[in-house]
Amino acid sequence: GHAYYCAVYDLARSGHATGMPIDPSTQPPICDDCVLGKQTKSSVLKVQVGIHASRQLGIVHIDLMEHPDVVSATGHKYIMDLIDDFSSYPWSIPLASKSD
Questions:
Q1: pTM of the model
Q2: Rounded Cα gap, residues 62 and 39, in angstroms
Q3: Element (H, E) at 32
């Protein structure tokens, strides 16, 4: 995502940022992703197919994501997302490297 264009224009007008090639007198182009993000979506039916956990942490779904261009202030480059199949409880764990 990106910052709201008014915030970027205010930053450019205030002179607190250098090297920003922005003309504050013009409106920015329409961002197709922002338009799509503001559209409402119909809800998806939760149909469970296949084997499901009969107790908490019986089955845990894990996804490891890397953000190669972004490192957090604490040095984390990866995010491990976990979802408990029984309760659908999600949580995320920041990781500095894949081996953590």
A1: 0.50
A2: 29
A3: helix 32-38
Helix (H) or strand (E) segment spanning residue 83: strand 78-84
Q: 2 CB contacts (<8 Å, ≥6 apart)? A: 31
Chain segment 44-94, per-residue pLDDT in tens = 677 777 888 999 999 999 999 998 788 888 999 999 999 999 999 999 999
Q: What angle do CA 3, 30, 26 make, to 5 degrees?
A: 80
First vs last Cα of the chain: how many Å apart?
A: 28
Tokens of 13: 């007008």
Which of 34, 35, 93 lies closest to 60, judged by CA? 93
- Say whether 35 sits in a helix, a strand or coil: helix
